[in-house]
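ERR on first pass: missing label on line 2. Operator R.T. fixed the label and resubmitted. Corrected input:
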Amino acid sequence: MNEKLALSDEILLSISKPERYIGGEVNSAVKDLSNIKIRFAFCFPDVYEIGMSHLGIQILYGLFNEYDDVWCERVFSPWSDMDSVMRENNIPLFALESQDPIKNFDFLGFTLQYEMCYTNILQVLDLSGVPIYTKDRTWDDPIVIGGGPCSYNPEPIADFFDLFYIGEGETKYRELFDLYEKSKEEGISREEFLYRCSQIDGIYVPSLYEISYKEDGTIESITTLRENVPAVVKKELCLDLTNAYYPMKPVMPFIRVTQDRVVMEVMRGCIRGCRFCQAGQLYRPLRERDVKTLKEYAITLLKNTGYEEISLSSLSTSDYTGLNELLEFLIDYCNEHKVNISLPSLRIDAFSLDVMSKVQDVKKSSLTFAPEAGSQRMRNVINKGLTEEDILRGAHEAFLGGWNKVKLYFMLGLPGETTEDIEGIGDIANKIAVEYFETVPKEKRNGRTIEITASTSFFVPKPFTPFQWASMNTKEEFLDKASITRKGIMSQLNQKHIKYNWHEADASMLEGILARGDRKLSTVIYNVYKRGCIFDAWSEHFKNDIWLEELEKAGLDPMFYVKRERTKDEILPWDMLDCGVSKEFLWREWETSKQAKVSPNCRQSCMGCGGANYGVGICFQPKTGV
Amino acid sequence: MKKLRLKFSKHGPIRFLGHLDVMRYVQKAIRRAEIDIKYSEGYSPHQILSFAQPLSVGSTTDGDYMDMTVLSCDSIQSVMDALNGAMNEGIEILAITELPEKCENAMTSVSAAEYVISFREGKEPKFDLSETFSRFMAQAEIPAVKKTKNGEKTIDIKPLIYNYEILDGNKIHVLLSAGSSSNLKAALLTESLFAFAGEEMKEFAAKFNRLETYLSGDDDKGHYVQPMIPEKMSEVSFASADGVSQGKIYV
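pass 2 clean. output:
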């Protein structure tokens, strides 16, 4: 039996959730080191329970471990109690499977899912004993590579990374591993290796690009430093999703994690084109998995894991063309095998309500609508197709079906937002309550009543969206808007049935700075880390004052990143990257949004975003017309 | 339909799992092993599965138990084999037996547990274990400070220690009352011993391995405890225990 643990019994017994650090989970990969040429440490820079809920890590972990010469292991951010213990006792950060120090690995890969994890990256590097800056690393250190949504503007963290992988991980890692093995055999320098990496499609080597700035702080030019380094690195895309690798034996955490179920990705990409949504652009074009394959996957995944729940994952599962057939099959199979079906991101309509009534306890579950904006005008601005009529019709059907809990999600601070748009939030919540009272007569309520929860988050413009040029609201504006929303709800006839939640504004501001930030921010990130900032995504750990102080010390104005509307000719920090959607298309969408006009989705008609260049997916299917 | 009792061991890193996580782990293993376990009725059915006695995080065991009800199986041995095949190293099913239909479940029938308490390197007691333990047991009452929801309270643990011996001069082998009515944790016994010896116990000094879990009964010779699967018992070898047959120890 493997008794090897990096931590002593005394430490494991004195910290919270020791199961985060012991490895050994069912389906985790243990390999014989004598056959291994590449040791890859895959890091989700947040706590174990969050990281282990992420599908991407399961896919790449499984894929890498299919290779005989590669052993991929996992590492997560040690929680704050463990962080202190490791520093006090000089314990180097280790990978879960082998419990060996990260420092000895060939690669250290980070998946970058949200901006607020940036200080955690430095924590992982620091605890591993790996130099923070790429310029200070030698062959004694792992190659530090990043991927995932935030790698589409990696500039604030560019100085900390050797490489970024732009796009979907299924395609180019084998080529990268082969190059690594060859380079090691040849004995070339690390610098030369990084240069050769830049010749692989989808690999961005930030140290090979120099950024110069104008006096006003915007970018003067982006220059490549060596011959043949691509001026623009284009996103990698998995062309055949049905036949792509999918992890049939996902690692199963001992502890209850956020996503405690089988996750089956039914498709990748989205036809909708909501203008605030980054994922909707990054994963274009939409590609579906074959329904027959998914039926087989479901059975195998459930058998291999023993999970009692399966979740269908995608950006908008209602748009999956085989959904009806897949659900019919799953409902039969899952009833027989005592498995629950979880259906996030389903649009509420007669079909989905029928399905949900078969797989959920109606009395306990709530309906979720994401109108995202309070008025139709604003919903047109953001290209969210959902109308008030859709919502009220869905709610009506749901109330007839026995539901009485409704959750509503909105954003505040959308471009061009007016007080009327914001007040619309209270109106729509009230109309839903009215709909309930009209639909369900008193004698049928059985002592229950309508419960509406409206939540608002603050809009943060993201790169590679039509709103990448937009002005973001300031903290004061956000809080004013939350206050207008609250008053709007309080003035409603049915206000006692409506609960209102809003997010903190400070964290949204920082997210806004980092999302569209440039390389000048790396010093700030390093300095706040040195002053103790980690787990910024956790409100109890987030230290806004330190961030503001360090921004000021570095001579950087938060408003430059947040409030400033960008012009068409401005060089954006992420202009050396190409997510497959053209800048011209995004600008057209930005202009259309200003006229409060919607654009058709990819199934109705092609808007010429550029995704068709990949030659696959929705772009090559017949259109239904508008 | 069969009611089954399974004996299992737990060693290695998996000892750091909390009791609820061990249960979740076993529940999923049962599903992977495709054991035809019975589920409860209702909207969110759960497996008919119960564990005899929780084990504290960090402790190991060679004699823990769970009960489950299966709707069908080829043989009880096949259930044990399938389950062992579906689990990682760490937890192993050691024995299985079929229970009579009317039988108290594992949790309510526990009445004693046997442990070996050893000490981590550098944290061993400085006092002579054999000599001190004899004096400790010779007290008319053995006080121990038990932490409860309402603060601390001192109880007499002497009646809860059924049997004891010192092994190799450095390990304590004990049979302690267990179960819902009067449970004595091995950790509490150890703390009480150190307090008696007037020595401060270092943090995490003691290691606990549970050897066996017992239920109780009465026969013409008196009140006894007996391993929950008597015919598959690990060797019970208290020097002072007499008349042992089928693992019965009279207390």
